[in-house]
Amino acid sequence: MVREEQNFRVELLVGLLVLIIAMYVKVTNTELAILTMVIGLVLCLEIVNSVAELISDAIRPKLDHYAKTIKDVVASGVLLAAITAAIVGLIIFSKYL
Q1: CATH number of 6-93
Q2: What is the residue extent of each domain of the chain?
Q3: Residue 77's closest CA among 49, 43, 37?
Q4: Which of 75, 87, 85, 62 is nearest to 5 (CA)?
Q5: pTM reported for the whole predicted model
Q6: What does the alpha-carbon distance between residue 32 and residue 4 come to, in Å, rounded to a whole number?
Q7: CA angle (9 as vertex; 61, 17 as ends), nearest 5
Q8: What is the reported pLDDT for 24?
């Protein structure tokens, strides 16, 4: 994933930066656990998105009309998880910054 998927690399870098900042501002262990979980959720969904894209590309000649829908639905899941993670981050960091 790190070698092949640019979005995964960006999300991983942002996640690591968030965790570094969290440790710097000394968030609680519970807050750190929550941040780690939402970062992990985004990364896991990005992996699922990549798998869905590979499968969709493999079936594309036969089921082209489904392939685009599959990609869009899974990508929207990643977007929703990323937005949720950003909101959780804002909630947690608001009292520290």
Answers
A1: 1.10.287.3610
A2: 6-93
A3: 49
A4: 75
A5: 0.88
A6: 29
A7: 150
A8: 96
